[in-house]
Amino acid sequence: MRDTLGVLLAGGAGERLFPLTRDRAKPAVPFAGQYRIIDITLSNCINSDLRRVYILTQYKALSLNRHIREGWGPVVANELGEFIEILPPMQRVSKNWYTGTADAVYQNIYSIGAEQPKYVIILSGDHIYKMNYGLMLDQHRESGAAVTLATLPIHPDEVRQFGVVEVARNGEVTGFEEKPAETKMRSPFMPDMVDASMGIYIFNTDVLLPELIKDAEDPTSKHDFGHNILPNILGKYKMCAYNFVDENKQKALYWRDVGTLEAYYEANMDVATVSPTFNLYDKSWPMRTRSYQYPPAKFVFGEPGRTGMAINSIVCSGSIVSGAVVRNSVLSQDVRVNSYADVDSSVIFTHVNIGRHCRIRHAIIDRDVHIPDGTVIGYDPVEDKKNYFVSQNGLTVVTRDYSVYENPVSPDFLQPGGTW
Protein backbone atom coordinates (compact mmCIF):
# COMPACT_ATOMS: atom_id res chain seq x y z
CA MET A 1 0.00 0.00 0.00
CA ARG A 2 2.99 2.35 0.24
CA ASP A 3 2.87 2.79 -3.54
CA THR A 4 -0.91 3.16 -3.63
CA LEU A 5 -3.24 6.15 -3.50
CA GLY A 6 -6.94 5.87 -2.72
CA VAL A 7 -9.39 8.18 -4.50
CA LEU A 8 -12.81 8.08 -2.83
CA LEU A 9 -15.71 9.52 -4.84
CA ALA A 10 -18.08 11.25 -2.41
CA GLY A 11 -19.67 13.96 -4.52
CA GLY A 12 -22.92 12.38 -5.66
CA ALA A 13 -26.12 14.36 -5.17
CA GLY A 14 -28.07 11.30 -3.93
CA GLU A 15 -31.44 12.23 -5.43
CA ARG A 16 -32.95 8.82 -4.63
CA LEU A 17 -32.29 9.40 -0.91
CA PHE A 18 -34.28 12.65 -0.88
CA PRO A 19 -35.26 14.23 1.49
CA LEU A 20 -32.35 12.93 3.61
CA THR A 21 -29.94 14.40 1.02
CA ARG A 22 -31.69 17.73 0.70
CA ASP A 23 -29.26 19.41 3.10
CA ARG A 24 -26.35 16.94 3.18
CA ALA A 25 -24.23 14.86 0.84
CA LYS A 26 -25.23 11.22 0.44
CA PRO A 27 -22.02 9.86 2.08
CA ALA A 28 -22.76 12.10 5.10
CA VAL A 29 -26.16 10.51 5.80
CA PRO A 30 -26.10 8.82 9.24
CA PHE A 31 -25.97 5.03 9.41
CA ALA A 32 -26.47 2.60 12.30
CA GLY A 33 -26.86 5.37 14.85
CA GLN A 34 -23.36 6.74 15.28
CA TYR A 35 -21.75 6.36 11.84
CA ARG A 36 -21.99 8.14 8.51
CA ILE A 37 -22.22 6.09 5.32
CA ILE A 38 -18.72 7.17 4.27
CA ASP A 39 -17.28 5.75 7.52
CA ILE A 40 -17.74 2.22 6.17
CA THR A 41 -15.45 2.74 3.18
CA LEU A 42 -12.94 4.77 5.20
CA SER A 43 -12.84 1.99 7.81
CA ASN A 44 -12.09 -0.47 5.00
CA CYS A 45 -9.21 1.78 3.94
CA ILE A 46 -7.66 1.90 7.41
CA ASN A 47 -8.20 -1.82 8.01
CA SER A 48 -6.53 -2.47 4.63
CA ASP A 49 -3.60 -0.23 5.61
CA LEU A 50 -4.48 2.23 2.84
CA ARG A 51 -3.43 5.48 4.50
CA ARG A 52 -3.19 7.93 1.63
CA VAL A 53 -6.71 8.83 0.56
CA TYR A 54 -8.17 11.74 -1.38
CA ILE A 55 -11.90 12.30 -0.88
CA LEU A 56 -13.57 14.10 -3.78
CA THR A 57 -16.60 16.04 -2.54
CA GLN A 58 -19.05 18.29 -4.32
CA TYR A 59 -22.72 18.73 -3.36
CA LYS A 60 -23.77 20.08 0.06
CA ALA A 61 -20.53 18.92 1.58
CA LEU A 62 -20.28 21.11 4.72
CA SER A 63 -21.25 18.43 7.26
CA LEU A 64 -19.30 15.79 5.33
CA ASN A 65 -16.17 17.93 5.27
CA ARG A 66 -16.44 18.67 8.98
CA HIS A 67 -16.99 15.01 9.80
CA ILE A 68 -13.93 13.91 7.84
CA ARG A 69 -11.72 16.71 9.11
CA GLU A 70 -12.54 16.23 12.79
CA GLY A 71 -13.11 12.47 12.80
CA TRP A 72 -10.63 11.05 10.31
CA GLY A 73 -7.73 13.50 10.19
CA PRO A 74 -6.35 12.31 13.56
CA VAL A 75 -6.45 8.64 12.48
CA VAL A 76 -3.45 8.92 10.13
CA ALA A 77 0.12 10.12 10.76
CA ASN A 78 0.84 13.17 8.63
CA GLU A 79 4.50 13.11 9.60
CA LEU A 80 4.76 9.71 7.88
CA GLY A 81 3.22 11.00 4.67
CA GLU A 82 -0.23 9.62 5.48
CA PHE A 83 -3.38 11.66 4.90
CA ILE A 84 -7.13 11.53 4.49
CA GLU A 85 -7.71 14.75 2.62
CA ILE A 86 -10.75 16.45 1.13
CA LEU A 87 -10.52 17.72 -2.45
CA PRO A 88 -13.51 19.90 -3.43
CA PRO A 89 -13.92 20.99 -7.08
CA MET A 90 -11.12 23.49 -7.73
CA GLN A 91 -11.65 24.13 -11.47
CA ARG A 92 -7.95 23.64 -11.96
CA VAL A 93 -8.30 22.00 -15.37
CA SER A 94 -11.95 22.85 -16.10
CA LYS A 95 -14.51 25.57 -15.46
CA ASN A 96 -17.17 22.94 -14.71
CA TRP A 97 -18.16 21.04 -11.63
CA TYR A 98 -17.56 17.30 -11.79
CA THR A 99 -19.56 15.98 -14.74
CA GLY A 100 -18.93 12.27 -14.13
CA THR A 101 -16.85 9.86 -12.07
CA ALA A 102 -13.94 9.94 -14.52
CA ASP A 103 -14.11 13.72 -14.79
CA ALA A 104 -13.94 14.03 -11.00
CA VAL A 105 -10.67 12.10 -10.97
CA TYR A 106 -9.37 13.94 -14.05
CA GLN A 107 -9.95 17.36 -12.46
CA ASN A 108 -7.63 16.25 -9.64
CA ILE A 109 -4.99 14.78 -11.92
CA TYR A 110 -2.30 17.15 -10.65
CA SER A 111 -2.94 16.20 -7.02
CA ILE A 112 -2.72 12.51 -7.95
CA GLY A 113 0.44 13.00 -9.96
CA ALA A 114 2.07 14.95 -7.12
CA GLU A 115 1.90 11.85 -4.89
CA GLN A 116 3.56 9.70 -7.59
CA PRO A 117 1.66 6.51 -6.74
CA LYS A 118 2.29 3.36 -8.70
CA TYR A 119 -1.33 2.28 -8.24
CA VAL A 120 -4.60 4.18 -7.78
CA ILE A 121 -7.65 2.60 -6.12
CA ILE A 122 -10.95 4.22 -7.10
CA LEU A 123 -13.61 3.83 -4.40
CA SER A 124 -17.17 4.97 -3.74
CA GLY A 125 -18.32 6.53 -0.48
CA ASP A 126 -21.91 5.30 -0.46
CA HIS A 127 -21.85 1.51 -0.12
CA ILE A 128 -22.05 -0.77 2.93
CA TYR A 129 -19.59 -3.67 2.90
CA LYS A 130 -16.32 -4.95 4.37
CA MET A 131 -13.37 -5.52 2.06
CA ASN A 132 -9.60 -5.81 2.33
CA TYR A 133 -8.29 -3.77 -0.59
CA GLY A 134 -4.81 -5.18 0.07
CA LEU A 135 -5.91 -8.62 -1.13
CA MET A 136 -7.24 -7.07 -4.32
CA LEU A 137 -3.97 -5.20 -4.84
CA ASP A 138 -2.00 -8.42 -4.33
CA GLN A 139 -3.95 -10.10 -7.13
CA HIS A 140 -3.58 -7.02 -9.34
CA ARG A 141 0.19 -7.10 -9.02
CA GLU A 142 0.55 -10.86 -9.37
CA SER A 143 -1.67 -11.01 -12.48
CA GLY A 144 0.24 -8.28 -14.28
CA ALA A 145 -3.03 -6.47 -15.00
CA ALA A 146 -3.20 -2.81 -15.90
CA VAL A 147 -6.72 -2.59 -14.45
CA THR A 148 -8.52 -4.76 -11.91
CA LEU A 149 -12.17 -4.33 -10.99
CA ALA A 150 -13.92 -5.93 -8.04
CA THR A 151 -16.95 -8.06 -8.91
CA LEU A 152 -19.69 -9.91 -7.10
CA PRO A 153 -22.31 -12.34 -8.42
CA ILE A 154 -25.84 -11.02 -8.97
CA HIS A 155 -29.04 -12.49 -10.40
CA PRO A 156 -29.66 -11.71 -14.10
CA ASP A 157 -32.81 -9.77 -13.17
CA GLU A 158 -30.64 -7.15 -11.40
CA VAL A 159 -28.29 -6.27 -14.27
CA ARG A 160 -29.94 -2.94 -15.13
CA GLN A 161 -28.61 -1.56 -11.83
CA PHE A 162 -24.95 -2.51 -12.43
CA GLY A 163 -22.09 -2.56 -14.83
CA VAL A 164 -21.73 -6.23 -15.74
CA VAL A 165 -18.61 -8.00 -16.96
CA GLU A 166 -17.78 -11.10 -18.94
CA VAL A 167 -14.95 -12.95 -17.27
CA ALA A 168 -12.84 -15.76 -18.69
CA ARG A 169 -11.92 -18.71 -16.50
CA ASN A 170 -8.41 -17.26 -16.06
CA GLY A 171 -9.93 -14.12 -14.51
CA GLU A 172 -9.44 -11.77 -17.47
CA VAL A 173 -12.31 -9.44 -18.38
CA THR A 174 -13.41 -9.99 -21.98
CA GLY A 175 -16.61 -7.93 -22.05
CA PHE A 176 -18.26 -5.03 -20.23
CA GLU A 177 -21.77 -3.57 -20.36
CA GLU A 178 -22.95 -0.63 -18.27
CA LYS A 179 -26.42 -1.16 -16.78
CA PRO A 180 -27.94 -3.13 -19.68
CA ALA A 181 -31.64 -3.95 -19.76
CA GLU A 182 -30.60 -7.62 -20.02
CA THR A 183 -27.46 -9.56 -20.82
CA LYS A 184 -26.35 -12.97 -22.04
CA MET A 185 -23.20 -12.75 -19.91
CA ARG A 186 -22.87 -15.35 -17.17
CA SER A 187 -20.25 -16.04 -14.53
CA PRO A 188 -17.86 -18.84 -15.55
CA PHE A 189 -18.00 -20.22 -12.01
CA MET A 190 -21.72 -19.66 -11.27
CA PRO A 191 -23.61 -20.25 -14.54
CA ASP A 192 -26.90 -18.95 -13.14
CA MET A 193 -25.38 -15.64 -12.02
CA VAL A 194 -23.80 -12.57 -13.61
CA ASP A 195 -20.55 -10.92 -12.50
CA ALA A 196 -21.29 -7.29 -11.61
CA SER A 197 -18.85 -4.46 -11.05
CA MET A 198 -18.77 -3.10 -7.49
CA GLY A 199 -17.42 0.27 -8.62
CA ILE A 200 -14.01 -0.52 -7.08
CA TYR A 201 -11.10 -0.26 -9.50
CA ILE A 202 -7.32 -0.54 -9.27
CA PHE A 203 -5.36 1.15 -12.05
CA ASN A 204 -1.69 1.32 -12.81
CA THR A 205 -1.13 5.07 -12.65
CA ASP A 206 0.74 5.14 -15.96
CA VAL A 207 -2.41 3.71 -17.58
CA LEU A 208 -5.03 5.73 -15.68
CA LEU A 209 -3.71 9.24 -16.24
CA PRO A 210 -3.33 9.09 -20.05
CA GLU A 211 -6.78 7.51 -20.35
CA LEU A 212 -8.31 10.27 -18.24
CA ILE A 213 -6.71 12.91 -20.43
CA LYS A 214 -7.91 11.18 -23.58
CA ASP A 215 -11.43 10.91 -22.20
CA ALA A 216 -11.47 14.58 -21.14
CA GLU A 217 -10.69 15.60 -24.74
CA ASP A 218 -13.63 13.59 -26.11
CA PRO A 219 -16.69 15.89 -26.39
CA THR A 220 -19.02 12.89 -26.87
CA SER A 221 -17.96 11.17 -23.64
CA LYS A 222 -20.06 11.00 -20.47
CA HIS A 223 -16.73 11.08 -18.58
CA ASP A 224 -17.74 8.06 -16.54
CA PHE A 225 -15.68 5.01 -15.61
CA GLY A 226 -18.45 2.55 -16.39
CA HIS A 227 -19.70 4.14 -19.59
CA ASN A 228 -16.38 5.26 -21.06
CA ILE A 229 -13.07 4.50 -19.36
CA LEU A 230 -13.47 0.75 -18.85
CA PRO A 231 -15.02 0.00 -22.29
CA ASN A 232 -12.27 2.04 -23.97
CA ILE A 233 -9.52 0.20 -22.10
CA LEU A 234 -11.01 -3.23 -22.75
CA GLY A 235 -8.81 -5.10 -25.21
CA LYS A 236 -6.17 -2.37 -25.10
CA TYR A 237 -4.71 -3.33 -21.72
CA LYS A 238 -4.96 -6.43 -19.58
CA MET A 239 -8.05 -6.14 -17.39
CA CYS A 240 -8.85 -8.64 -14.65
CA ALA A 241 -11.73 -9.27 -12.27
CA TYR A 242 -11.30 -9.71 -8.54
CA ASN A 243 -13.95 -11.85 -6.86
CA PHE A 244 -15.21 -10.02 -3.79
CA VAL A 245 -13.83 -11.51 -0.57
CA ASP A 246 -16.19 -10.49 2.22
CA GLU A 247 -14.56 -9.61 5.56
CA ASN A 248 -18.02 -9.66 7.13
CA LYS A 249 -17.57 -13.42 7.65
CA GLN A 250 -21.16 -14.43 6.95
CA LYS A 251 -22.43 -17.18 4.67
CA ALA A 252 -23.85 -14.72 2.14
CA LEU A 253 -21.82 -11.91 0.63
CA TYR A 254 -22.84 -8.54 2.06
CA TRP A 255 -22.62 -5.52 -0.23
CA ARG A 256 -25.38 -2.93 -0.20
CA ASP A 257 -25.96 0.15 -2.30
CA VAL A 258 -28.01 2.27 0.10
CA GLY A 259 -28.93 4.73 -2.64
CA THR A 260 -32.69 4.51 -2.13
CA LEU A 261 -34.75 5.24 0.98
CA GLU A 262 -35.97 1.66 1.17
CA ALA A 263 -32.48 0.14 0.80
CA TYR A 264 -31.11 2.58 3.37
CA TYR A 265 -33.94 1.81 5.80
CA GLU A 266 -33.53 -1.96 5.42
CA ALA A 267 -29.77 -1.74 6.03
CA ASN A 268 -30.42 0.13 9.27
CA MET A 269 -33.10 -2.35 10.31
CA ASP A 270 -30.62 -5.17 9.73
CA VAL A 271 -28.01 -3.86 12.16
CA ALA A 272 -30.67 -3.60 14.89
CA THR A 273 -31.72 -7.24 14.67
CA VAL A 274 -30.67 -9.97 17.12
CA SER A 275 -28.24 -11.50 14.60
CA PRO A 276 -27.48 -8.78 12.05
CA THR A 277 -26.12 -9.77 8.67
CA PHE A 278 -23.76 -6.79 8.74
CA ASN A 279 -21.72 -7.25 11.90
CA LEU A 280 -20.64 -4.01 13.60
CA TYR A 281 -19.23 -5.89 16.59
CA ASP A 282 -16.36 -7.72 14.87
CA LYS A 283 -13.21 -6.57 16.67
CA SER A 284 -11.01 -7.94 13.89
CA TRP A 285 -12.55 -5.46 11.41
CA PRO A 286 -13.51 -2.39 13.47
CA MET A 287 -15.76 0.35 12.14
CA ARG A 288 -14.49 3.82 13.01
CA THR A 289 -16.21 7.19 13.12
CA ARG A 290 -15.97 10.64 14.64
CA SER A 291 -16.31 10.54 18.45
CA TYR A 292 -18.74 12.81 20.27
CA GLN A 293 -18.63 13.48 24.01
CA TYR A 294 -22.12 12.53 25.12
CA PRO A 295 -23.11 10.95 28.45
CA PRO A 296 -24.17 7.29 28.53
CA ALA A 297 -27.57 6.20 27.28
CA LYS A 298 -30.19 5.98 30.03
CA PHE A 299 -33.50 4.15 30.54
CA VAL A 300 -35.74 5.46 33.31
CA PHE A 301 -39.07 4.62 34.99
CA GLY A 302 -40.29 1.10 35.64
CA GLU A 303 -43.89 1.44 36.70
CA PRO A 304 -46.71 -0.40 34.90
CA GLY A 305 -47.46 1.23 31.56
CA ARG A 306 -44.51 3.57 31.93
CA THR A 307 -41.35 1.51 31.62
CA GLY A 308 -38.33 2.83 29.77
CA MET A 309 -37.07 -0.01 27.57
CA ALA A 310 -35.52 -0.76 24.18
CA ILE A 311 -35.94 -4.18 22.54
CA ASN A 312 -33.90 -5.38 19.53
CA SER A 313 -32.65 -1.84 19.06
CA ILE A 314 -29.50 0.25 18.86
CA VAL A 315 -29.44 3.14 21.35
CA CYS A 316 -26.48 5.49 21.12
CA SER A 317 -24.83 7.66 23.76
CA GLY A 318 -26.64 10.68 25.12
CA SER A 319 -30.07 9.16 24.51
CA ILE A 320 -32.75 8.85 27.17
CA VAL A 321 -35.68 6.47 26.90
CA SER A 322 -37.92 7.92 29.60
CA GLY A 323 -40.87 5.70 30.38
CA ALA A 324 -41.27 4.80 26.69
CA VAL A 325 -40.94 1.64 24.60
CA VAL A 326 -38.56 1.39 21.64
CA ARG A 327 -38.65 -1.72 19.44
CA ASN A 328 -36.63 -2.79 16.39
CA SER A 329 -35.24 0.70 15.95
CA VAL A 330 -32.04 2.74 15.69
CA LEU A 331 -31.66 5.74 18.01
CA SER A 332 -28.73 8.02 17.22
CA GLN A 333 -26.97 10.22 19.75
CA ASP A 334 -28.84 12.67 21.96
CA VAL A 335 -32.36 11.36 21.36
CA ARG A 336 -35.09 11.65 23.99
CA VAL A 337 -38.19 9.48 23.90
CA ASN A 338 -40.66 10.67 26.52
CA SER A 339 -43.16 8.80 28.65
CA TYR A 340 -45.86 6.57 27.14
CA ALA A 341 -44.40 6.95 23.63
CA ASP A 342 -44.05 3.92 21.39
CA VAL A 343 -41.37 3.79 18.66
CA ASP A 344 -41.28 0.74 16.40
CA SER A 345 -39.17 -0.15 13.34
CA SER A 346 -37.84 3.38 12.91
CA VAL A 347 -34.56 5.22 12.38
CA ILE A 348 -34.14 8.29 14.59
CA PHE A 349 -31.33 10.75 13.84
CA THR A 350 -29.50 12.94 16.38
CA HIS A 351 -31.03 15.63 18.60
CA VAL A 352 -34.61 14.40 18.22
CA ASN A 353 -37.19 14.87 20.97
CA ILE A 354 -40.24 12.59 20.81
CA GLY A 355 -43.09 13.81 22.98
CA ARG A 356 -45.35 11.90 25.34
CA HIS A 357 -47.94 9.48 23.98
CA CYS A 358 -46.44 9.58 20.47
CA ARG A 359 -46.78 6.51 18.26
CA ILE A 360 -44.18 6.15 15.52
CA ARG A 361 -43.49 3.18 13.27
CA HIS A 362 -41.83 2.48 9.90
CA ALA A 363 -40.37 5.98 9.80
CA ILE A 364 -37.14 7.95 9.53
CA ILE A 365 -36.93 11.07 11.70
CA ASP A 366 -34.25 13.53 10.59
CA ARG A 367 -32.04 15.40 13.06
CA ASP A 368 -33.19 18.34 15.20
CA VAL A 369 -36.88 17.42 14.93
CA HIS A 370 -39.32 17.89 17.81
CA ILE A 371 -42.34 15.56 17.69
CA PRO A 372 -45.15 17.12 19.75
CA ASP A 373 -47.08 15.10 22.34
CA GLY A 374 -49.60 12.67 20.94
CA THR A 375 -48.33 12.70 17.36
CA VAL A 376 -49.00 9.56 15.30
CA ILE A 377 -46.64 8.78 12.41
CA GLY A 378 -46.52 5.75 10.14
CA TYR A 379 -49.99 4.40 10.75
CA ASP A 380 -51.97 6.30 8.09
CA PRO A 381 -50.08 7.13 4.84
CA VAL A 382 -52.87 9.46 3.69
CA GLU A 383 -52.59 11.56 6.84
CA ASP A 384 -48.80 11.39 6.81
CA LYS A 385 -48.65 12.82 3.28
CA LYS A 386 -50.31 16.00 4.54
CA ASN A 387 -47.31 16.84 6.71
CA TYR A 388 -44.39 14.56 5.83
CA PHE A 389 -42.60 12.90 2.96
CA VAL A 390 -43.94 9.41 2.21
CA SER A 391 -42.12 7.14 -0.23
CA GLN A 392 -43.87 4.96 -2.80
CA ASN A 393 -43.47 1.99 -0.47
CA GLY A 394 -45.05 3.81 2.47
CA LEU A 395 -41.92 4.79 4.39
CA THR A 396 -42.51 8.09 6.22
CA VAL A 397 -39.65 10.60 6.47
CA VAL A 398 -39.95 13.56 8.85
CA THR A 399 -37.58 16.48 8.28
CA ARG A 400 -36.95 19.68 10.19
CA ASP A 401 -39.36 21.79 8.15
CA TYR A 402 -42.40 19.51 8.29
CA SER A 403 -45.75 21.19 8.94
CA VAL A 404 -45.64 21.02 12.72
CA TYR A 405 -47.47 24.34 12.98
CA GLU A 406 -50.57 22.71 11.48
CA ASN A 407 -50.59 20.04 14.20
CA PRO A 408 -53.05 21.06 16.94
CA VAL A 409 -51.36 18.88 19.58
CA SER A 410 -49.13 20.45 22.26
CA PRO A 411 -50.05 24.16 21.88
CA ASP A 412 -47.26 25.05 24.36
CA PHE A 413 -44.81 24.15 21.59
CA LEU A 414 -46.05 27.15 19.59
CA GLN A 415 -45.66 29.61 22.43
CA PRO A 416 -42.50 31.58 23.24
CA GLY A 417 -40.47 29.55 25.70
CA GLY A 418 -42.29 26.33 24.80
CA THR A 419 -40.46 23.01 24.75
CA TRP A 420 -38.26 22.55 21.68
TrEMBL record:
Q: Which Pfam families match?
A: Hexapep_GlmU, NTP_transferase
Gene Ontology terms, MF aspect: ATP binding; glucose-1-phosphate adenylyltransferase activity
Instruction: Report the source organism.
Output: Granulicella aggregans
Q: Does the keyword Thylakoid apply?
A: no
Q: What is this protein called?
A: Glucose-1-phosphate adenylyltransferase
Annotated ranges, domain Nucleotidyl transferase? 6-272
The EC number(s) given in the record are 2.7.7.27
User: Binding of alpha-D-glucose 1-phosphate: at which residues?
Assistant: 98, 163, 178-179, 197
